[in-house]
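Review session, final week

We close the course with one last complete record, chosen because it touches almost every idea we covered. It is WAC domain-containing protein, a protein from Ancylostoma duodenale with 225 residues. Go through it on your own first, then we will talk.
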Amino acid sequence: MPLLNKKPIGRREVPPNVKLTDKVYYLEASNEIFTTYDEFFERMIQLNSTLFSCEFTGKTGLTYFEALDSEKQAMKALGNFPPQLEQSVLFLVRNYLCRGRFEDLLNDVSLFMKDRYFLDEECFYIDGSQRIPVRVTGVRLIRDWAPENTSSKEPQIPPPEIFRYALEFLEGHTHPDSYSGPDIDEHAVFDHTCLHRARSVASKPKLKLFLKNSCVVRKERYDIK
C-alpha cells in the first residue's frame, strides 16, 4: 500500500446511509465511492500529487500510481531473491554485524558476499572460459581464525582466502574433486577464486530491498524482524 506521510493512505468507507438508487462517484484507482463530485475530484488530485512513497523501497516524491508500480516491481524483485541466500544473509546480520545505519549494513553484507559463498547456494565453477553450474554442499575454514580487535565496531569476519568449498557439479558435469558423501566438509577443497556468482542473483539494489524488508532497528542496531 502506498504511503502518505509515512502511513498507509486511509480508504474512505461508504457512508451507511447511501441507497442503491443514490448517485455516487466510483474511483477505480483506490476502489472508493464518493457521494459528491467535489470529494471525488479532491481525491483524484491527491492521488496524482507527488506526496506518496513506496512502502518497500522507501522511494519518495511519487504519485499514488507511481508508488503502486514501484511496489509491484519491488515484490517481483523480492520474489527473485534466492531462498538459499535468505537464511544465510539474515544469520550474518544477526550474529556478525552491528550497524545502526542501513547503508553501513548494506555495504557490510555486500562486501561479505563479494568473495564468499553459502551452503546450498547455486553458483558457477570457472574452468578456463567455461562456467559450470554447481551447488555448494560444504564449507570449512582451512585454519584457525580469531578477530584481531574484539572491541572494534567494524565487522570481524574471516577473510575469503581461508574458506574452502565442497561442490556438487550440476547438469551432468563432473569433476574429480566433486564429492557428495559423508564427512563432506573434509572434501571442501575449492577456494573462492574458482567460483562466480551471477551479478543478477544478489545485486546491491536487490540486496538492499531484501534487507530493508527483513530488518528493523532494535536497541540502536539493525536486527532481523
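Two points worth writing down before the exam:
The mean pLDDT is 85.
The helical segments are 37-47, 64-79, 83-96, 102-114, 204-212.
Good luck, everyone.
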